[in-house]
Amino acid sequence: MSDTERPFWETKTLEAMSDAEWESLCDGCGRCCLVKLEDEETGTIHFTDVGCRLLDGDSCRCRDYPNRSAVVPDCVRLRPENIAGLGWMPPTCAYRLLAEGKGLPAWHPLVSGRAESVVDAGVSVKGRLSGSEDAFSVPELIDRIRVWPGRWPKAARQGLRRNPRN
Prior knowledge:
The protein is α+β, with helices and mostly antiparallel strands. Helix content is 20%, strand content 11%.
């Protein structure tokens, strides 16, 4: 298959992608929008099942994406130059996978052609949130620490390939 026949994520580096291509890599799982807590002694990042105040639990998308940094000042904007240094990104994240030289899994909407495939594979946070961060105190957040956001769901492990570009 020639480069013109292969999908952009297999032929372009993250840095070479257009804004539209970059944005299309997001599978809409919502895992990166979960509240994360850092253990001050070890530096370990722990995911919770609590969403950012802007995370829509049904669509698993940001309610105010264009203005997210103004509303949530610590919202991290993913960029090709910072993705490799964000070790807290979920292991299923397309940005992380491509930065690590891996391909997109079969359930990713760009591969499957279906946005619902993220939910079907068990990757999405849809139906798994305990609420918004505004509803929890710090001690309550500690009680909401979960391991599943930092792991591959069993159904999602199928179809992970190496990126042919590498």
